[in-house]
Structures are given as C-alpha cells and as structure tokens.
C-alpha cells in the first residue's frame, strides 16, 4: 500500500469539484508513477472547512477560490508553512505575483500555476523550463476561450455578436456575466503573467492595455473575408525599442499565421525567439475539467523528482494489424464494367469506396483513384493482391493510408 | 561572481558544436536565472579528450555522440558516478531505454532527452510532466523534418521525389546519405520513445512498423489534391484492442487535421486524452541549433529547483505606443475624389494604404474598407480623428488591428 500525499483543496466550484473528481479517478495511476497516493485531505468553501486545520493536515495546497482576498492570504500562509502551492488564479498572480514568487523562493517551496493561463496548453512549464534561458522576442496568444468561441461563431455563421454571445452562454462557454472575458481583461491578466516570465521584468495587470470584442460587427467579419483574414482576440507581449509592450486587442490574421486556424474555445500560444524560431502550443482553453487537468499536472510534478522516467507499469501487446482508411490508385483498361468489378473485389474483403475519380490516359487506359473507408490493413492488402492479378489492371496498384476522418474540424 | 556548474560534453559535431556556442552565449542569463554559471569543463571527440578525466571534472554530462556504443557505455558510467545526463540520442533511447532509465532511478540522477525527439518542440517534458498521469489514447506526430520538407516541396512545386530530395540536400535539410530519414527509421525510433512514455509499457525500435517516402510520386500528390488532402509522414502510437500500435507511414490528411498545415522542416505532435481532448505542439524540427536549444533547456532544468520563478533580472519600460497594421472601415459619400482625399489625410500621418475595397450602399453612400501598412498607433488614430471630422465621412470610422504580414507563410 502506497504512502499518502495529502492535498488540501481551497475552493470547490467549477474547477475545484472537477479537480477532486479527476484526482480520485487518477489516484491509482499516480501512485504507480510517483510511489505515493494523493488524497484530498480537506476542502474549504465559504460554508465548510477550516483553513488552519486543512493547512496542518496537508503536504500541498491547491487554491481554486479565485479573486484576491482571502486567496492571497491563504497562499502566503501555506508557503510560509513550507507547503507547495498550486493555483489557477490568474488575477492573483497578475496582481501580486512578485510577492508570491519571492515568498516561494524564500521558503524554498514550489508555486505552480499552469492552470492560470491557457487551460491544458502547457505554456507556463515551457516558458519556465524548456525556454528558461532563451531570449524570447515575442509571444502571441489566443488565451481566452470564450471570446475565441464567439468570434468563431460570428465568422462561421455570419452571426451577430449578440447572437454568438447568447449561443456561447447556452453552451456553457460564456458566463451569465461575460464582462471579464469579452472586455479582454481576463486575457490581459494572462498576458501579464506570460510577459513577466518571458522577459524577467515585473509586469502587472494594470500595465496591460486591453480592448475587447463587444464592438465587433458582422459587417467587419464580412469585409475581412474579402481580404482573406481571420479575426481573433490576440494577446501580444513583445520587446520594442529597449522596452516591452503587453496588450490585448482584436486583430485580423493572415491565413498563414499559426493562430489563424485556432477555432472554437481552443487556446494557442506562439513563442518566438532567435534560437528556436517559433513554437506553437494549442489545445482546449479554460473550462472545469481542462483546468483541473492542468492543476493535476502541477500537483504530480510537485510530488515526483524531476526528469524521472518511472518504471513501466504494464506490458501491453503491440498490435500489428490495425484499421486504416486508404487511397488506392490503379491503371486500368478504360472499358465499361471495370469500375464495377473493382468495387466487387474490394467489397469481398469488406472494403467500401468513399470517393472515386477516373481519368482517361493514353492507349485506351484510365487512371482510377479512390479513397476507401477504414478497414483492417490485412484485409485491404488482401484486396489489393487480388486486384493486382486482374487482367484489366496494369502496373502495381498504389496504396497510401488516409488519416481517419474523425479528425476533420 | 557566480559559482560554476561544470558540463562535460561528449561529441562536438553538428549538435555538440552548436550546443557549446549557445551555452557560452547564454551563460550570463543562465547565471542570473539559476545563480550558477554553466561552463564546458571538457570535450570528447574521437581525436581529443579523455572520458574519465571529463567525467571526474563534471557536474553533468551531455552526450551528443550518437549511435549505440560507446555512447551507451559513457551514459551508464556517468549515471553510476552520480552525474545527471542530457542526451539527444534517439537510437540509444529507443533501443536501450529501460536499462538507462532504471540506472537513472537507481542512482537517483536525472536523465533528460528532449532533444532526441522533436527538436525544440517540448513533447517529452509535456508527456512526462504535464501529462504524467493522463490516460493518453493516441499520439500523432510529424517527427522527421527532412521528410516533411521533401513532401512539402513535392506538394508545392509538383516536384518529383528525386528533385525534392536533391533540394533538401542542397539546403542542408537532408544528409548526403538520407536513408535513415526517408526510410522512416528515424521517425520510428522517436515514436518508440513517445509510446513508451505515453503508455508506460516497454517499446523498442524493433517493434515499430515503418514505411518511408521513397515510393511517393508526383502523381500521388496530384490526385490527392483532387480529394483536398495533404500528404505527410505520420507517426502513430495508439491504444487498440487492449494493446498498442506504434507505426510510421505516409498518410493523407484532411485539411481540418491539426497536422495538415505543418509545412517545411517543422515538426508537430498531437496528444489525445479524455481529460484534455487534444493538445498540439509544433515548431522547428531537428537541426543543430534547434536541438542544441532543447539540450540547453534540459541542462538548465537539471540546474534549477523545480517550479521556481526566479527574481526579475531587469525592469524594462512598458511601451504604450507601438506600430500596428490596421483595417479601417468608413461610410463615405459615393462621389469622385473622396478616396483621394482619404488617402491624402492618411498620408499626412504617414499611413499608407495596402489594399482597398469600395462598395456602393443605399442613399448615395459607399463603404470604404482598407488595410493600412504598419505605423505607430498614435499616428494612425490621429488620422482617424481627422477623417471622422470630414464632411464626406458618415458615422464613426471603424479600426481593427491586423497582425503584421511578416508571419505569413
Ligand atoms: N472556471 C474556469 O473555467 C477556470 C479556468 C481557469 C482558471 N480558473 C480559475 O480557477 C479559480 C476558481 O474558479 P471557479 O470557476 O472554480 O470558481 P467558482 O466556481 O466560483 O468556485 C469558487 C469556489 O471557491 C469558494 N470560495 C469563494 N470565496 C471563498 C472564501 N472567501 N472562502 C472560502 N471559499 C471560498 C466557493 O465556495 P462556495 O461554494 O461556498 O461559494 C467555491 O467553492 C479562479 O481563480 C479562476 O480564475 C477558472
Ligand atoms: N543533427 C541533428 O540535427 C540532430 C537532431 C536531433 C538529434 N540528433 C542527435 O544528436 C546526436 C549527435 O548528432 P550530430 O548530428 O551532432 O552528429 P555528428 O555531427 O556526427 O557528431 C558526432 C560527434 O561525436 C563524436 N564521436 C563519434 N564517435 C565517437 C567516439 N567513439 N568517441 C568519441 N567521440 C565520438 C564525433 O567526433 P569526431 O569529430 O572526432 O568525428 C563528433 O564530434 C545523435 O545522437 C543524433 O541522433 C541530431
């Protein structure tokens, strides 16, 4: 039986409840990986729990209350008591970050906050660790899922801002009071944190210039389409003239830009630096389960020694024959009935045709190209062998896999 | 004067030399961040240096020799001597990973290998840390820059495989002997490492089924365009029927797939899991400076305590007025000369028009929409104020930023 690692949980709302559930679902696997079983040792809300009792009974504190006070006080007290802290509180970090980070350094504890910025997109870890000594020139980010969802709706459906916002609220992508998101303030707090980490210079929320999306009209979208542009709420942190600029505003992007194709409630961040050119990270933005997953990643990191590759926990069989969709190209006689025979041979092996193109080529032949729905590769190659032996098939049929359609947007 | 952290460097080829240079360039900044100054304490090649002397004189060993022996022997001896090791050797890890990882656990040292898989794309760190306890369902990756460059050339230019390969060699994206890359073996080694980490089950290179791109023809590309597909060399590691499948082969992707737009020598990896849906990481693939940057990130991580946010090292001014390109929409009188006057007013503020669309709307008016080349925002808004006061301008002009064209592909 593994030892227990006690996690004190402050806040039990959207993220807190999702975190508690995810922790219990993954406890077994975490015990395998870390050798220690994490367990919620106490929960604090406005109506239950006592902070001092929870603190005394925890190895690590997770803060998911939000706002400045009492979150700030609790986080400081936890670190002063020598406990690691994981928080998803962007407002707190963007306003009082220096105080918190210096307290962490002083008391030699970890303060992790991946969940505060871009949901499951691991931009904090990458900035703080992979790029710890890189000279970052610029960060661009879509760091608010609500506004990206609204803008995507407007672009897709030609919908008005109001209608798109209503739809976002209906689907749970926007809160009843969406002001913090649509005004750009939420994104501004996140960009303040990213700028601080990238440039090693103090940046607080009140230094970030921001503009929201409330004034964007369907007409702006329509005219932008004429120019082939995509409209996003973009956060920028960059070096300019020996200083830095940190800002959030709607911006049109050319189609080649890595953020132009980030749609719906997804978040994405690009980091530019000489040595690395540019890396892009993207994934689902905020939301209870996503943020909880980022918080859990932080908790586990605090539990395990760095850069350890745990023992394998299982020995899964390696399967050789899997299902794939295929592209199949053949040179055949250009005669009636050939396509029907090809379809019949494919059908015998369970292969069905999704789409087909036939084109005449010289010497009474035709090039037949088709996409085949997913099936076991062994059966598909069986059909190809049969086809290769047919008198109306010339040269070896050519087969290339097609990644399954389930990924299409 | 900061204390010294001694880095023993094994191998001084493409990556080794780039690493030594990057380390000396970034030493100052690293000393700021970690409190300790890294320094190459010795270099081993076939013609210089002595391994035992370098080992005795180092806090950490960087292995950039490649191949199995003597790299394996050196890495094992370094860890047994209690030294952390950073390696970019995919072949070694894909063949002898379990032996190396268990030695690291046994001797309580770090073995880091970000540079082995996808250049600067931090997929190892994300899998091992952010997603340490996630239940990963599938990984798709473009993990070989050479083949992605060749396929991109073929798709763009309608070039043959041979011509695209020659071009890749000319530009340094492919080696004189490209067999390891174009056969899919390099990608297979990387997928073996990713599968091992994602599924906690032993996977070695010889268990990976791979197929290369040597047989892809320009005709395949042309017909694929008819179906709207992109062709990539895709590595897959996924759970199937209680086992796993790990394979590499060319595959067509639908345009909505996050890997479909990864072009040139870039690498990208998507990780799918219930809790996170899907995250995508992309950036420049292998290459001397890129791999060196990943190796340096690993070295720094071994030097600093986890999750520490170092003190700010500077206090950069926050600049408010920056240059932006703009979209500008106005309702104007539909009369001759209006566009000329608008252009003149913009020109007075240094704003020049990149493109413009004018459309008649009811009541003798026109909608004038343009994109303005980058200029200081203060000057642009100055022009907008002037325009707003003109008798031929009706309603407030609407301005939205456009992200600079320098990002277009
Ligand atoms: N929701 C998201 O998608 C998301 C995404 C990223 C980051 N975050 C961040 O995660 C944090 C939590 O967000 P959330 O959406 O989970 O908030 P929430 O649903 O409003 O939950 C807040 C929780 O904190 C408790 N709480 C509030 N004030 C308290 C106090 N004075 N003392 C003790 N407990 C108190 C509440 O208790 P009661 O139950 O008694 O009211 C509730 O359980 C915030 O910092 C937020 O910015 C959220
Ligand atoms: N090149 C890339 O873009 C790239 C990208 C990702 C990962 N990697 C990995 O990085 C590693 C190094 O690659 P590379 O391209 O830098 O290789 P490289 O240019 O061939 O350099 C290899 C270096 O190792 C030295 N070496 C070889 N055998 C040795 C031995 N028996 N004893 C001592 N030194 C020996 C060589 O010494 P001499 O100078 O005396 O020949 C040379 O300095 C490989 O594992 C490779 O897979 C490379």
TrEMBL record, chains A, B:
It is an enzyme of class 1 (oxidoreductase). Its cofactor is a metal cation. Pathway: Amino-acid biosynthesis; L-methionine biosynthesis via de novo pathway; L-homoserine from L-aspartate: step 3/3; Amino-acid biosynthesis; L-threonine biosynthesis; L-threonine from L-aspartate: step 3/5. It catalyses: L-homoserine + NADP(+) = L-aspartate 4-semialdehyde + NADPH + H(+); L-homoserine + NAD(+) = L-aspartate 4-semialdehyde + NADH + H(+). Residues 327-402 form the ACT domain. Signal peptide: none annotated. Pfam families: ACT, Homoserine_dh, NAD_binding_3. Its EC number is 1.1.1.3. The lineage of its organism: Bacteria, Bacillati, Actinomycetota, Thermoleophilia, Solirubrobacterales. It comes from Solirubrobacter deserti. Belongs to the homoserine dehydrogenase family. This is Homoserine dehydrogenase. Keywords: Amino-acid biosynthesis, Methionine biosynthesis, NADP, Oxidoreductase, Threonine biosynthesis.
């Amino acid at each position: 039986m593994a030892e227990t690692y006690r996690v004190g949980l402050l806040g039990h709302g959207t993220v807190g409840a999702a975190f508690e559930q995810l922790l219990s679902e993954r406890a077994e696997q975490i015990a395998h990986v870390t050798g220690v079983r994490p367990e919620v040792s106490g929960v604090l809300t406005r109506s239950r729990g006592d902070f001092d009792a929870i603190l005394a009974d925890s190895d690590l504190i997770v803060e998911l209350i939000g706002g400045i006070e009492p979150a700030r006080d609790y986080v400081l007290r936890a670190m002063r008591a020598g406990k690691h802290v994981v928080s998803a509180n962007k407002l707190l970090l963007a306003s009082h970050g220096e105080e918190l980070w210096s307290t962490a350094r002083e008391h030699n504890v970890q303060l992790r906050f991946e969940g505060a910025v871009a949901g499951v997109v691991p931009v904090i870890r990458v900035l703080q660790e992979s790029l710890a000594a890189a000279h970052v020139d610029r960060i661009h980010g879509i760091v608010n899922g609500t506004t990206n969802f609204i803008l995507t709706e407007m672009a897709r459906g030609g919908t008005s801002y109001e209608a798109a916002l209503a739809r976002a609220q209906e689907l749970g992508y926007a809160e009843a009071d969406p002001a913090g998101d649509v005004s750009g303030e939420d994104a501004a707090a996140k960009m303040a944190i990213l700028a601080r980490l990238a440039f090693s210079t103090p940046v607080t929320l009140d230094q970030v210039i921001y503009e929201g999306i409330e004034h964007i009209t369907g007409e702006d979208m329509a005219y932008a389409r004429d120019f082939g542009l995509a409209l996003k709420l973009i956060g920028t942190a960059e070096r300019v003239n020996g200083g830095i600029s940190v800002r959030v505003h709607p911006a049109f992007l050319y189609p080649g830009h890595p953020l132009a194709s980030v749609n719906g409630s997804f978040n994405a961040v690009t980091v530019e630096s000489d040595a690395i050119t540019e890396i892009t990270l993207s994934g689902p933005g905020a939301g209870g389960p996503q943020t909880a997953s980022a918080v859990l990643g932080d908790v586990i990191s605090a539990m395990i020694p760095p850069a350890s590759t745990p023992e394998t926990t299982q020995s899964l069989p390696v399967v050789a024959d899997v299902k794939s969709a295929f592209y199949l190209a053949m040179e055949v006689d250009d005669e009636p009935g050939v396509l029907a025979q090809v379809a019949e041979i494919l059908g015998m092996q369970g292969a069905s045709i999704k789409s087909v193109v036939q084109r005449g080529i010289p010497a009474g032949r035709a090039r037949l190209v088709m996409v085949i729905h997913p099936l076991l590769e062994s059966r598909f190659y069986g059909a190809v062998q049969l086809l290769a032996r047919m008198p109306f098939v010339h040269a070896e049929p050519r087969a290339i896999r097609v990644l399954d359609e389930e990924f299409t947007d």
